[in-house]
Amino acid sequence: MTQFSDLGLAEPVLRAIATQGYTHPTPIQARVIPTVLDGRDVVGIAQTGTGKTAAFVLPLLHRLATEPRRAPARGCRALILVPTRELAAQVADSIRDHGRFVRHTTALVIGGARPGPQVRALAPGVDILVATPGRLLDHLGAGAVRLDAAETVVLDEADQMLDLGFLPAIRRLMAAVPKQRRTLLLSATMPKAIRTLANDFLTDPVEVAVAPAARPIETIDQSVRHVDGPAKRGVLIDLLGCPTVERAIVFTRTKRGADRVNRHLQEAGLSAAAIHGNKSQSQRERALTAFRAGGVTVLVATDIAARGIDVDGVSHVINYELPNVPEAYVHRIGRTARAGRSGVAISLCDPAERSLLRDIERLIGRTLDPDGAANAGVETRTETMAETTAEASRRGRAAGPASRAAAPRDPAERRPPRRRSRSRSRARPAAAAAAGA
C-alpha cells in the first residue's frame, strides 16, 4: 500500500502529515499528488469525503517548501477558488494543519466578512489566497489584489464553481491570471457539459477519477418516500424522531424553504438550525459550530451553503425537496457515510418531483428503493397522513367552497405575512447570488 513518504513530498510537509497521525494517502491523493508534482494540469474526480482538499493542498505546500520566494505586493503564488465561505474556511484550516512546518502566508477572502482586514492582509502579498469569486472580483476591481503572479490556480468543487451562476466571475478572474500556470479542478462530479467548460481553463490535463463518475458511496442506504407535498412536513418530523438519527442534514431547494422547514422543526421540539446564503457569516459559523458540537442535531441547508460542511458523524441526509440538478443529489448524500462509515439518505418525493427523481436514478444507475431499511419505523405515520390528506380533500370537494375556505391550510403552504416579506431584502439574481456566495 502506498505511503505518503512514497509520493515525493518535502520533509516539512511529511512531518505535518505524520503529526496528524496519517501514513497512507487516500486513492485521490495517491494519484493527484504525484501528477501535480510533475507540473501537469489535473481534473480530479472523487466523491465527497475522500480527501480532495489535501490532494491539492499538499503539493502546493511542497512547492512553497522547496521553492521559497516572496509573492509581489497585493499578489499571490497560488489561488484557490471555492464556491462557499464555509468551504473556504475548511481549505484554510487544511493549509494551516498541513503547513505548520512550512513558512507561508495565507489570506482568506470571502463575502460576509469586512473587506478592510482582507485588503490589509493582501497588501504585502501572500503565498496562498483562498477566495470566493464574488468578493475576490470586488477586490480585483478595486485594485486591492493582483493575480498576474499566480503560479497555480485551483478550482475546488469544480462542477459547482463552473455552473452558470459562477461562470462569468470565474472567466473574469481567470483572464487576470498568467497563461503559463498550473490549473487543478477537483470535484465530486464532472458532467460532460461542465467538462467542456472546464477545458477552457486547462492545458492537456490529466484526468484522475478514483470512483465511477456520479455514483454515490456504496455504504449509503438510499431510499425514497413518495409523499404528497402537504404531508412532507409530518413525515420529516417522524423521520428525525427515529432513535437511529444521531445527526442529520435536511436539504431544501431554496433559502426561504430552508427557513420555513427549520421553523417547523423547532416548533416540533427538534434542535435545528438553518444555513444558506442569506445568513451572515457569523450566523453560519454559529450554526456549524453547534452542529459539530452536538448542540444542534439537525442542519437545514441549501445546496450551495452545504458545499463547505465538513462534519463527521452525520448519520442521515434527508432530501426534503429533490434538487433540480441530479448531480447535486450526489453532493448532498455525500455528507453521510464519510471516512468508511455507513449512512442513510432518504428522499421525499411528491408527484411534481417525479421527473427529478427519474433524472437522479438515470445518473446514479439505479432505482431508489421505496422500501429500504432507511424507512423503517415511519410506514404507519406516512400512510396515515397520506390517507388523511386524501380524505380531507374528498370531504372538501363534497362540502363545497364554503367548507374548503374554512379548512385550515398546512403552515408549510401559507404565504409569509406581507409585512415580514417587505422587511427582507430582495432576492438577488441567481448569477449575482452565486458569485457572492
UniProtKB/TrEMBL annotation:
CDD domains: DEADc (cd00268), SF2_C_DEAD (cd18787). Residues 416-427 have a biased composition (Basic residues). Residues 398-409, 428-437 have a biased composition (Low complexity). Gene3D superfamilies: P-loop containing nucleotide triphosphate hydrolases (3.40.50.300). Pfam families: DEAD, Helicase_C. Residues 236-386 form the Helicase C-terminal domain. GO terms for molecular function: ATP binding; hydrolase activity; nucleic acid binding; RNA helicase activity. It is an enzyme of class 3 (hydrolase). Its EC number is 3.6.4.13. The keyword Signal does not apply. One of its GO terms (cellular component) is cytosol. Keywords: ATP-binding, Helicase, Hydrolase, Nucleotide-binding. PROSITE patterns: HELICASE_ATP_BIND_1 (PS51192), HELICASE_CTER (PS51194), Q_MOTIF (PS51195). Residues 2-30 form the DEAD-box RNA helicase Q domain. A motif (Q motif) lies at residues 2-30. Residues 368-437 are annotated as: Disordered. Residues 33-208 form the Helicase ATP-binding domain. Belongs to the DEAD box helicase family. This is ATP-dependent RNA helicase RhlE. It comes from Roseospira goensis.
